[in-house]
Write a structure and sequence with these properties.
There is one protein chain. With 77 residues, the chain is mainly α. The protein has 4 helices and no strands.
Amino acid sequence: MANLTITVDDEVLKRARIRSLEQGTSVNALLREYLISYAGDVPAVHAMKELIEMARKSSSGSGKEGRIWTRDELHER
């Protein structure tokens, strides 16, 4: 695993440390999670992108060309 050095304003880092402690984590862990997510290597991010792509390609739906439901059908018990 590689190390990364960044420059951050002292006050920003102080607030980030306080907030991360309140969340039971560390600034390092938060930055690592953010970079993993940003890079797109998180399985949930990949799954979400696939779902969005499938929804775009789908011809199903409601509206002009899709299914129109009546109020009674939506509230049928």
